[in-house]
Amino acid sequence: MQDVEENPLTSLQDDVLDELGDDLIADIAGLLGTDESGARQLICTTVSALSDEAETVATPHDAPLTGVATVGGFATGGLMAGLLAEEAEPVAGAVSRKTGLPAGPVSRTVELVIPGMLAVLTKRAAGK
Known about the structure:
Layout: H1 8-32, H2 36-55, H3 78-99, H4 103-125
């Protein structure tokens, strides 16, 4: 039997959802005025949008996405933290337009998702 290759984006979305945990997902649902399923969908859309933005950023050494997660050190947020934070506003706008949800709560959600995404990328870079 042949193994089915896992979609890397779906894996990243699942890992970020796991990293955020049920309590934060419930908080995001309350922030958005939706249920947890709706919050999970918005988080996955946000991860997808952030992934697309992060992959288009050229780094000085053409480092892979997982390799730049810890550049600058985790305590300082590293290079990836700066790159994702810089893209947070445009990503929030894109997610808001795609979902039809108000920009304010979507922007706050993006701000909450970024640390979870960074944690996942850092773990992946460390091989955990």
